[in-house]
Amino acid sequence: MRALAAVLPLLLLIAACSAPQRQAAGPQEQAAASPQGRVSAPGEQAAIRLSAELVSPDDIALRWDGRDPDAAGRVLEFATEPGGPYTILAFLPPEQATFTHPDLIPHTTFHYRLRPYYGRPSAPVEVRLGGGPHQEPEPGWSQPRTIAGGPRGTLPTGSGQAAPAGLKATVTQADGVAFTWTDRSGDEDGFLLENRPAGRAGFRVVAALDPDVNAFGLVTLPEERRAAYRVRAFRYGPPSNVVHRTTGGE
Questions:
Q1: Alpha carbon distance 91, 89 (integer Å)
Q2: Among 14, 15, 27, 246, which one is most buried in terms of CB atoms within 10 A?
Q3: Phi then psi for 224, rounded to 5 degrees?
Q4: CATH match for 125-236 among 3.10.180.10, 2.60.120.10, 2.60.40.10, 2.30.130.60
Q5: How many C-beta atoms surround the C-beta of residue 187 within 10 A?
């Protein structure tokens, strides 16, 4: 599992249960997170209603209905206490309506909620990793950071011109890519780095970063040696209803 070191504190993925393979956008259900941003027709948006079912002693299946055509995707979160704190379980594409949380701790109550997120992505860049030579990385190249002296974004995240600009990818080692971009939004909750490995149909979230960050380095997985990348400034929407189930076990 790729560590999402120094990203949003909530991304201590599955801290209360067994760790899956690194896929910050969710496991097998990943698909394209479209740019979105259009204005909904009257009555088109429906409130999301979340439900949960214990399908085995340690697996909880989640389902939801409702739609929000303005959302770029949804964030599924869980907690083991009624009031939180909540941990991000997965970033999901807007068309997805099911998710299974597997291999959970026995005799534990899990609480779940969904939140939409909004914002437009940058133009994508293509990255191909090869045999080198590679540019010597700067110290701390992989840490999320704000490059001093750059312009500070001022635009509302949902506006058409607020997508990050000038995304640049630099191969720094056999499996490392350093990204920089221009922040044009002034009210984001953070940034999402997304990729689409060669042969996959859609983008998935691979890192969630704090507001005002405009540089980050990624250590890639084998299937990401050829991939398209983009970055998205985003804002959260209001949460859905909260549901809970208690696991069984011996």
A1: 7
A2: 14
A3: -100, 15
A4: 2.60.40.10
A5: 14
% the chain with pLDDT above 90: 66
Tokens of 178: 């350093």
What is the distance between the alpha carbons of residues 231 and 210, in angstroms, rounded to a whole number? 12
More confident: 32 or 71: 71
Of the candidates 106, 102, 100, 96, which has an alpha carbon nearest to the alpha carbon of residue 48?
96
pLDDT of 11 > 90? The answer is no
pTM greater than 0.90: no
Report the C-alpha gap between 192 and 180 in whole angstroms: 13
pLDDT per position as a tens digit, 180-207: 999 999 999 999 999 999 999 899 999 9
Ranking 13-27, 82-96, 223-237 by mean pLDDT, the lowest is: 13-27
Q: Look at residue 9 and tell me whether its pLDDT is greater than 60.
A: no
CB-based contact 229:194 (threshold 8 Å): yes
Q: Which residues of 64-95 are buried (b: 16+ CB within 10 A; e: fewer)?
A: beebbebbbbbbbbbbbeeeeebbbbbbbbbe
- Are the C-beta atoms of residues 198 and 186 closer than 8 Å to each other? no
User: In this structure, what token pair is assigned to residue 190?
Assistant: 């953070």
